[in-house]
Amino acid sequence: MTEADVLVFFEHQLDPDANRMAAFVAADPTDRAAFLVKWARILADDSIVTKTVEFDGRVVGHISRFTQFGEPEVTYWIDREYWGLGLATAALTQFLKLDRTRPLYARAAVDNLGSLRVLDKCGFVAVGEDVGYAEGRGEDVEEFILRLDA
């Protein structure tokens, strides 16, 4: 991952439809300075594993493993222009081969059917539910908690 990749990620996350679907996003996705500070912190943290997702030579997203609520969790973002092409599934499949951390958790809004389908294809199973305030929707949103075991 490069600094240039991060600048592309910023452009991706400006999409209001993608923010709504992801739900749990930055309070102000247009705040470039805050976005760059967040990514500088991510890239400087050796406990976070993060990779750029590319397709046809273009940066189309990212995938990361980090710790949340004391558990290892995976997250990913694919530019909406590339949704429906299987890129999230392919990226997560490759990432899971590189990062063997298990159990591994993921979270997705209950109505984010695309992300839930990706996680299911990669072997994650629902183990719980939660509700939290989602900046991308300006309201509390229900989410599934999923886990991938060994």
SSE order and pairing:
Layout: H1 3-12, H2 16-22, H3 32-44, E1 49-55, E2 58-68, E3 71-78, H4 87-98, E4 104-109, H5 113-121, E5 125-134, E6 139-148
Domain N-acetyltransferase: 1-150
Pfam family, one: Acetyltransf_3
Protein name: GNAT family N-acetyltransferase
Shape: globular
Output the strand order for the largest sheet. 1-2-3
Class based on secondary structure composition and strand pairing: alpha+beta
Strand count, sense and barrel status of the largest sheet are: 3 strands, antiparallel
What fraction of the residues are assigned to beta strands by DSSP? 25-35%
CA-CA gap between termini: 27 Å
Order of helices and strands: HHHEEEHEHEE
Helix content: 25-40%
How many H/I helices?
A: 5
Which structural traits does this protein have?
35% strand, alpha+beta, single chain, three-stranded antiparallel sheet, 34% helix, 150 residues
What does this structure look like?
This protein is of the alpha+beta class and 150 residues long. The chain has five helices and six strands, in the order H-H-H-E-E-E-H-E-H-E-E. The strands form two sheets. The protein has a three-stranded antiparallel sheet with strand order 1-2-3, with helices on both faces. It has a three-stranded antiparallel sheet with strand order 4-6-5, covered by helices on one side. A hairpin with a 4-residue loop joins strand 5 and strand 6. The protein is globular, with a radius of gyration of 14 Å.
